[in-house]
Amino acid sequence: MSTILEMTDVSKRYRTAGGFGRGRKGFLAVDGVSLHVERGEALGLVGESGSGKSTLARMANGLVVPTSGTVRTDGQDIARLGRRGLRRLRRNVAMVFQDPLASLNPLQTVRQTLENVFHAHGETTSTAELVALLESVGLGADYLKRYPHEASGGQLQRVAVARALALKPDLIIADEPTSALDVSVRAQILNLLADLQRDQGISFLHVSHDLAVIRLYSDRVAVMQRGRIVETGSSEEIFRSPQHPCTRALVEATPEAELPA
Ligand SMILES: Nc1ncnc2c1ncn2[C@@H]1O[C@H](COP(=O)(O)OP(=O)(O)OP(=O)(O)O)[C@@H](O)[C@H]1O
């Protein structure tokens, strides 16, 4: 296996003034974190609200610039990438966000949304390719002409996943991809992501505050608390013998029915 994402001693200090815990030096949202994701692996990042998960995930694809530390994708330091390198990064590392309605342009049809991804990278596409893309996320060709308000939350999240898949990324960063969805469709989206990992060999960094979701879906789990990773292990280990009090609290907060037998 080769390493697709490697973050070494990465920190992020937000320079905002005022507010609890925010002194003149700003607020340290991520504090010296190191993690790696191997090719074909799904790493789950779990932790309470405000622990720095989204900040860390956004540093992994250059949306947030670290205050210190190094982020490498496929062995390349993203701080040293030129314009072409950054383009390649955007192709290789795609994101799926929490709220599909907010992440899709309400004035564009699904066809336009998908075509834009290709055009942004100087590529053309065909209807057959777009239909195949939709089919890979379980949607029919008729969705091409729909606007976001003409689809359900689960269907829109499938469109967002199709958009992420368009350029055949090596890594998808999914930041709470199911928390805005009805419970009934959450499992469908998680199964879709698991299928993509298995069938297409895509790596995932999957962020969630919900350990039950992470467990269903990740090979390894990293637990964050107050900007630091306090425990890592296989999903199995984390559930069977959580070591850190924060991990134990997360396991205890997981409903019995969702724990492994
Ligand atoms: N742009 C920003 N400017 C200032 N502070 C920020 C910014 N973004 C996040 N923060 C703060 O950094 C901390 C970590 O936020 P982050 O969103 O990374 O955590 P999280 O674990 O993803 O939380 P949640 O699960 O609630 O989304 C929080 O205290 C948050 O208020």
Automatic annotation (TrEMBL):
Which Pfam families does the record cross-reference, listed alphabetically? ABC_tran
Keywords, A to Z?
ATP-binding, Nucleotide-binding, Transport
Q: Which PROSITE patterns match?
A: ABC_TRANSPORTER_2 (PS50893)
What superkingdom heads the lineage?
Bacteria
Q: Which Gene3D superfamilies match?
A: P-loop containing nucleotide triphosphate hydrolases
What does the record give under GO molecular function?
Answer: ATP binding
Residues annotated as domain ABC transporter: 5-251
Record bears the keyword Plastid: no
Q: Does the keyword Coiled coil apply?
A: no
PANTHER family, alphabetized:
D,D-DIPEPTIDE TRANSPORT ATP-BINDING PROTEIN DDPF-RELATED, TRANSPORT ATP-BINDING PROTEIN
Q: Which family does it belong to?
A: Belongs to the ABC transporter superfamily.
Which protein is depicted?
A: ABC transporter ATP-binding protein
Recorded source organism is Nonomuraea spiralis
